[in-house]
Amino acid sequence: PYGDIGALEFGAGKIDPSAVIVTPLGRGEVFGFYTGAAEQDVLDVLADAQRRFGSDPDRTVLSGYSLGGVGTFNLAQLYPDLWAGAIDIVGAPDLSVIERLGVAPPLPYTLENLRNLPFRMAHSRLDELQIIVGVVQPDVAALRLDRLGYDYRYWQFYLRDHLFFPVPVLQCEYDAAIARGRVVDPARVVYSQEPALRHDEADTGLILRHDAAYWMSEMVVRGDAFAPGDKGTVDITSLALADREPKTRRIAGVEENLGGGRDVCGENPDVRTHDIWTVAGIAWDGFDDAPLDNGIVAKLERVASVTLDVARMGLDTGKAIRIDVDSDGDSRLRLKGAWHGAGRIEQDGEDPLSVAPANDIIDIAIGAGTHTLVLQP
User: Fold this and answer.
1) Phi, psi of 112 (to 5 degrees)
2) Region for residue 349 given its phi and psi (left: phi exceeds 0; alpha: psi -120 to 50; beta: otherwise)
3) How far is the C-alpha of 66 from the C-alpha of 90, rounded, in Å?
4) Is residue 302 over pLDDT 80?
5) Nearest alpha carbon to residue 92 among 33, 160, 20, 179
6) Confidence of residue 229 (pLDDT cuts 50, 70, 90)
7) Strand 276-288 to strand 152-157: parallel, antiparallel, or no bridges (unpaired)?
8) Centroid of chain to Cα 142
9) What is the pTM of this model?
10) Is residue 101 pLDDT above 60, yes or no?
11) Which long-range contacts (CB under 8 A, 24 or more apart) does 348-353 make?
């Protein structure tokens, strides 16, 4: 219980989820800001923990405090399919002036990647470090997630600063994420890749390309030179999976545990930290039923090529597959599956052409514009 610890209830406090907790050192943390070698360290520690302790990869929660919150934003955007949930505590999606001065490396700003990852942001309105680096980054991130319609929560604690956030009030969110589990094969994948954030270092062997998520892989962004912030984006929906349109519910309010026990999920007699906070967010309460079809709808922005695992998308390679695609330039769709020999592809009603799989992949050239293709088995 946290209600009987006297003056300590104004400190950060502790959480105790039913889980293995690991804290990667990030090969120095502050020098890498969880990018490059520091990013790889987190991935290595995650794999080591799963191997040593048998922890469930479907119930792994990403979270961090302060710089760890920055890392939570980074790693959630780059690897959204690894986590059951992500919880940022007094972190930031970017470091504003610090990044522009070159003190910190470029960080991703691809919040659209979080479509299938419930994201939580817990902040202190009197945060002195947030004031230094730019004040409004968490507010802007929350607005972006809200406009996207994603599953998110944004809490602002009005009596707290950077060092003394009441972490116990978030215990229920860790437990909820563990119970919920991660999304493995969603109906819709939105993913942006920033090539300037890639690492392909011959001297160290470090390779980080950020080109895959869920059933999408080997994404290549069109172009040869990329500045920080340049990105390509895929937005692809499988019509063979029903969970396409979430049932959303808006959340907004002011809450407190001054007079009784409460955490961010509701009444809890064991948590009384003497706080007042606001909450904004969107809850996803399941999905509306959607009609099923053996088809794909895709929008490609600055994408040279992308590979899709049709089995994980629920598509039947023994039946015709309809593909509606909108691309802003020449691209290629590479469909990986258990194909049964050569087939035919008809594009925009023209005469069909023969196609044959190579290494289980059918490679389809896509021109700029909007097209309808039908792949016949």
Assistant:
1) -60, -20
2) left
3) 5
4) yes
5) 33
6) very high
7) antiparallel
8) 14
9) 0.93
10) yes
11) 348/372, 348/373, 352/376
